[in-house]
Structures
1.
Amino acid sequence: MDNIIQQLEEYISKYYPNVKGSDFTTLIDIIYMSALRNNITIPELLNDLYKGILDRDLFNKSNSGNIYNFIKNSIYKNFAERIKDINVDTNGGMVSVGKDELIISLGLGINPITNKPYVNIIKNLLGDF
């Protein structure tokens, strides 16, 4: 189990390096338990998060909607419902990522060209995303 949690920690550290300390631990715990409760293995989850569990094209074309309507595979609906309420600090106590913002950043995946999230959750005091 330690290796599985380590894989999750390495993924979050690599792609969301500003999430640290107790926020990092809380994020890992919630993602891990959400995956476990929904019978999603961590390797499967990390692979799908990298590719994106949300339909990026549909999301980008939309002006409004329910975040769950953008989920590509129904196995991730319950997972998304559990992690949507996570609030994490990404700027040393200055700014927090709010509800739904994390699922958008995690769910849209990693750009393979830049090796960075398609939607960055680091605000740098310049507004959302």
2.
Amino acid sequence: MSFLDDWKTGQTAVPKNEIKFFRFFAELLSKHHKGVHYYEVHGNPGHVSFSSGLWPTKPPVTKELGDLIIITYDYGTMQARYTINQNKFQKTTGAQRVWPAFKFKADIHQYDLLAYRPDVEVAGSIPFPQSILSGTDYDSVGSYGVFYEGEGHLIDFIYSIAKWLSPQSYVNSCNLILNTFQNEMSVAGRETICTVGIETFLKHLLGMRVGAPVSTPEIGGFLNSLIRKAAEEVGEEPPVVDLPVFNEYVGDDNSAIGGGYRLLLINVGDNA
């Protein structure tokens, strides 16, 4: 069976929850593709403090950075990408309409953080680099992944960079709206803006178009530490990402990473 066939037939046994759906997605991805590692490290989420892009005159806000980190890398191009992703499950009473506008519930401050990508200060148990969001001009470093009830009441998936979404209101719990008439959009192949449908998302993910390039040793070393910590938590040998940007700035002690996070790591070159 194909990935899509397995997704359609297996999802009926999955509780309607974004974490469980993404876990199922990662399990199927590992079944159908090589070089896939998915980790769930338990603990308090990693929070950061930041100055608001929506309300720049207000005091700094403290928020979880994001509940999922997706990393892809390719030895053929010697490049890696990452995105800080906020997973959601949009409950519906019937099939959710994607056209002409899709909307889902979200936290306005989380949107503020991922869309405006400010410098961050650590306010929790994960030592995020200050520039983890701000150190790139790729908007796709901050993104959302939303599971929703689609055609035939099957669960499907929409990916969007945070910047492409519009708040319906500016209250704490708001609706974010995705305005699109296309199943996939990108900026001249530079980065994917949004995808509609889990198979389309998978194509862009394995095609190294999701997320921002890992361009500094500080970011690469931090992501490498997260990978090693996650593997250590489950008693595995950590997968080696043998790229210079991941190995120029690496410490031997992962004890500074004390919080919980979810991480999906894919060697896309193994899937050529």
